[in-house]
Amino acid sequence: MSAVVSRRRSVAGVSITNQQFLNTMFNDMPDCVAAMTCSFSGDPFDDSGDRKFKWHAKPWRPGTATLHLRSTTNNYVCISNFTPDPDTGQWRRRKAQFSRMHALMLDDIGTKIAKNKIRLPLSALIETSPGNFQGWHFLAKSPGSCDFATADATLKAMIASKLTADGADPGMNGVTRVGRLPVGVNGKEKYVRQLGHPFQCRAVAWNPERRYSIEDIVKAYKLNINAHTHTRTSGSYSPSGARNRLPRGEATKRVNEFERMMKRLADGGLYLASRGAWHDIICPWVDEHTDAKVGGSALYIPAASNDWLGGFKCHHGHCEHRTVGDVYRFTHLLAQGAA
After folding, report:
1. Residues 6+ apart with CB under 8 A from 290
2. Per residue in 238-272, pLDDT tens?
3. 43: helix, coil or strand?
4. By CB atoms within 10 Å of each CB, which of 65, 162, 241, 267 scores lowest?
């Protein structure tokens, strides 16, 4: 434990509150949107490594108190802001409600990502576990930060370039990504055993005047976002499209159902990785493939071009006739324990 403590004390801390952090990161939000925060006690994961806590998002706006983000809880903020659901008025951390990305967060600096990979001076650096840091690039408003396809592709390109870690939960990729706030704890049990108490997060660098455009990020990190951007003709994701062509609330309902399907696949160990608008999965019918290979199967996110139902493609001949509807039915049976 002494090595952990000495390593932590080797970097001086900075006094910054969660209120200051949020007010600065979201300093120019219009009245019609909100940031999304989350707070809970204890270990976020169970013994098997699965998340114990569901994301219960709480909308936040500049100037609002942060009493729910206590120093004794795990405290998170999403890198983007969101509009309320036009049908229900609910604030949700959903791609369909994306408005603008306000920061790009580099995870696991010092353990999985070398510090020399950081090509732009950070706006903030937060120690989130012993010797492990999250680095923040605050974003200035630009066409790219307000465009879902560009913002999401930038994050996917960062992951593909191994500049930020990719979680197993597909909902934690891209514009819905979250990071820890400077005041709060990392309640993982391994740190409690190691230190005798939850790890206390803290800011070790604070330079909020540093703001970048998406274009600055792409240029500095030499990202190929074209590989993760899909044009309208290929069924690109458009959060506001097609609502007028569907009954009230139906587009949001379909997006939510697709995300539930993705979560069931991830829980069942069938989710592999994301490629922009595509999500690679292990085919539910892999046992029927002649060569039994797991590659070559993917789901496409809900879009205006597919009536917000999503899509499915498997390159194995045995699955030529199968559609995203078959995957929905499979995951429904999976949730019931019948698959």
Report:
1. 316, 317, 318
2. 443 333 456 767 888 888 899 899 999 998 899 98
3. coil
4. 65
